[in-house]
Amino acid sequence: MLTIDLPSLLAGISLTAIGGWIASFIALRKDERAVQLEQVTKERAKWRDNMRKLCEEIAALHVENKASPVGGKVASLRARLATSINPKDKTDDEPILVHYDRLFSGEADDLNLFTRRIALLLKHDWERVKWECMPLYVKPFKRFTKKQREWRQRNYREIDG
Description:
Elements: H1 6-67, H2 71-82, H3 94-105, H4 111-133, H5 139-142, H6 146-152
């Protein structure tokens, strides 16, 4: 006669079910991260490249503008800049636009400061992307490192002077 040890059978089935659940959760998380890396990170990389090109065009126009003012191009680049940054960020992004306006109205001539503002914007975004792409199991160990604390500070993008 065949005897079945019911507790052992249930334990085996339970372990198999739990193992399957854990494996499917890990696979789901992996797929989710792949989509995030593919879509979000790629879009941010394009944005950073566009901001670099835009900053280069603005710098070139500023130099040209000293010789002969070019109104339409100034307005076009301002529109591109305004739509590429966060309009609700009064602390860090609005000063970029204000500085742009000052550069082309003749109130300011400090192109290096403008470029520094853009560089800090790009660096901050790059650090955010690296953090978001970091595996979850590494984040608790990296969260409070000096480098992580530095870019998370509210004044990270402030310009001295």
